[in-house]
Amino acid sequence: MSFELTIEPLGQCIEVEDEQTILDAALRAGVWLPHACCHGLCATCKITVLEGEVEHGEASSFALMDFERDEGKALACCARLQSDVVIEAEIDAEPDAEIIPVRDFDGSVQHIEALTPSIKGVVIELDEPMHFQAGQYINLEIAGEACSRAFSIANAPADGRRIELNIRRVPGGVGTGWVHERLALGDRVRLSGPYGCFFVRKSLPEPVIFMAGGSGLSSPRAMIFDLLAKHDTRLMTLVYGQRTRAELYYHEEFLALAAAHPNFRYVPTLSDEAVESDWNGLRAYVHEAAQAHFGGDFRGHKAYLCGPPPMIDACITTLMRGRLFENDIYTEKFFSAADAQQVRSPLFKRI
Amino acid sequence: MDMQATKKKLNLKEKYRAMTRDLDWNPSYQKLEDIYPYASYEGVKIHDWEKWEDPFRLTMDAYWKYQAEKERKLYAIIDAYAQNNGHLNVTDARYLNAIKILLTGVTPLEYMAHRGFAHAGRQFPGAGPRVACLMQSLDEIRHAQTQIHSLSNYNKFYNGFHEFTHMFERVWFLSVSRSFFDDAVSAGPFEFIVSIGFSFEYVLTNLLFVPFVSGAAYNGDMGTMTFGFSAQSDEARHMTLGLEAIKFILEQDPANVPIVQRWIDKWTWRGYRVLTLVAMMMDYMLPKRIMSWKEAWEVYFEENGGALFKDLARYGIRPPKWLDQIAQDKDHISHQAWCTFYNYALAANFHTWIPSEEEMDWLARKYPNSFDKYYRPRLEYWREQAAQGNRFYNKTLPMLCQTCQIPMLFTEPGDPTKICYREADYKGEKYHFCSDGCKEIFENEPEKYIQAWLPVHQVYQGNCFPEGTDPTAEGFDPLAAVLRYYHLESGRDNLDFEGSEDQRNFAAWRGQATTNA
Question: pTM of this prediction?
Answer without folding.
Answer: 0.89
